[in-house]
């Protein structure tokens, strides 16, 4: 780990250049790097998905393994480069994107020992989150932050709601296990709870269904319950978002009358609506 | 039942100490007791769930019945202790948590006679509701009360809506019973109503599905209906919650009358609405 | 049809008494009549539902047909009485409840010729709508009117939305018919449209499912579409209801300052917030 | 393509008359033309749908092909006429309705070579969009524009949400592919992702379902997730619509400045915000 005295010394030479290209996206080279990274990630995802299709895998075995090795080499090289050019490798390695970058290559090496884990390479889809950074989509970042804020603000309500749903689902699942029994597919309480969740959430796979009259009556109540209860999280989120939306909108609140100093004047007003003083043209940036 | 004259006499000696530990959660011992109770409830729930899995039950029959007896003894002892140390045992026994505590042990004893009821021991999940009391999660209690208030405030609208849905479901179920008939799985009106509920709530198990053209046309209408109608309870709840959310955020709560010191005055008031004192102009930053 | 000259002549004698009992619910006898009617309707519904269960029908054939004849006689008698005691029988017969009352007995007579129509007797569930009138549940009537108003206010938006959904469903169904074809269960365009509706509304019966890769990709898009689009009717209804809810809430707007006559004062204010005049205690009914 | 000098020369003679009838709907003939077009489109749609039903096709083969040729001839003739009478044929041909009109006839000709494409004739349902123009349903157009505006205003939020859902679905699908494997129906990653989408959107076809305990546990989490997450797009749309609904009902739009006669002044203004004229006290009833 870098000693504290290292704090002031900036990156220099090839490390600075590599850092600018790999970690930043404000220079031409940096943007190009990030864009080709996105393309590489998307191609490798496509590769993993196609490879999982049995018929495709058998036909194209030759170049598939070749492409696979290439992407593995590329992403490993990139990860090593990132570690090499960053000032505090450990801090990068333990950051969100550091872990994602590691997870993007790790399953390939693990697959030597546990071949069935190969598909988990897919987790590199998370690398695409960088796309928001590249495109500097301020609009999207605001939207994302807004969603996050609404979720956090209603977290305690959603937790209470979720714990209530979990209790209902456990009790209902147990009752159905007793009522229907293993002979109708409700082979154990965990399975019954799985069924209860699929019912209350209105998913309704239909792999397990009630066969007895009493079971169907209970299932009917659960469906109506789940359907009505779906209104609750929607209500929570919506109320939160509507409140945010309202506090977001009062665009012209900063326009102030120079005479009476009252604020909140509309952008297209020519006179103060409180004292009648003429207003200068409204300047927006 | 305790005589009325007993009203003033407080608990004393071991009963007071037991009461403080078992019923309250403000002392160290009390908190420890409640926490270990939670752990015991969770463990016993896990036990019941695992026991319902046939393969697990056969493998671990020995220690499962041992653990089962232990939990039964513990919860029975606890229930007796609660009855013993409380001033009015009947009032406790008939309270919500008293019934829950009884239901947590009753099924085990009933299971001697009706073994298939054993799984209902699961109902002790309701004991976990005490967790809110222990953690003193004021935030969560407020959220819980808020949800409850919104549900109660919109109860009459939801009841009207539910009765309308029940009528639709009964009529639609009967029509499908006539149209499709027993040969397509709609063996009786109750079964058809069960199917109609699963369709209108968009669960769609698929254990019974329309086979005739007319039946499929009617089912299509019902699906669109149910889908659109889902908007109604959501709208009811959301409107209620949004209204609460707005009344929750009383923007000017920090404006305080200098005379009577009551806060929560509106931003455009010129006089205190509690004592009539003139208010200085409200300053916002 | 009654001649216009009959307009002023009120009901008299036994017709007036019968009318008061059968059509109104403000006297003791009238309320008793309506209540026993509700019970009779509920019992006859239960009867029809039980009768549709094959095993039950075979066991209880004897008293079932007896009970059936009794209810038929009772409801027929009631319908004739209603026609006899009302001033304008045709107007009653063509009113909503008149038609419902007729539909409650008609299927039984039709069932002599078309036995499979017997189950439609169930339509008499609509008679239960009278329950709102009997119980004088003003609260519920207000809720019902509120729901109706919100639905009507957003009718044009919902129609536009529904027509868009129908077009999407028709095009998507046709595309799936071309892509999957009869060999995968999509036997005709109407069947494909039925499937598309069950997919877009998130019902998902699973009686018909895409088997080809392209079909599954299209189905995935449709599911995400339907899921996101579900937000639209909910949004329409909720926005409408929230707007109603807001216009519903300003309970104390009628409290007016006796001095400056400004209204909208809060119920717990002691002084006018505009002019500082002391307010008399607020009277609610 | 028409030369720029052609800009000022208006349509004349039969082209003007044809244009007025075919493209406009304000004359009697024009309205009649559009109405018969709607009827023809609806009839041809019905024809295509019936034709896809195998039993119907075999019975009515004779007149079906006759009707088919008639509609093809009619719509082709109409398309040619439209091209002939419009001033800038290319601009019409590349407009939305121009493409729709072409797509309404193209599949029939393509069907000579690829018979299975015949059903795509259905795409002519889009021609029905003209119905809004004929009926001059201003109300509906406003509703339609309102929906469009709400969708556009929340587009960035919905995109962020959708990209998050796609990532979740890809990762969850891959995990299920690893956990359940081809032997339980999860034959490839694309198939698993298709299943994940059907689960998260609460469609739940049930053609593929988890069989292992771990798979069912993951599926349960996904169902709860999808159910709760459904609140997000609903919240986004609803908040947007509620905000529009509020700005739609500009309560004081009828207050007008007596000097400059501009309307829409706020109820508590003392001076016109456009010309600064003092306003008389605002009178409400």
TrEMBL record, chains A, B, C, D:
Transmembrane regions listed in the UniProt entry: 32-50, 62-81, 93-114, 134-151, 158-179, 217-237
Database matches in Pfam families: Ion_trans
Domain Ion transport: 31-244
Protein's organism: Roseateles albus
SUPFAM superfamilies: Voltage-gated potassium channels (SSF81324)
Keywords for this protein: Ion channel, Ion transport, Membrane, Potassium, Potassium channel, Potassium transport, Transmembrane, Transmembrane helix, Transport
This protein's name: Ion transporter
Keyword Iron in record: no
PANTHER family: POTASSIUM VOLTAGE-GATED CHANNEL PROTEIN SHAB (PTHR11537:SF254), VOLTAGE-GATED POTASSIUM CHANNEL (PTHR11537)
Localization per record: Membrane
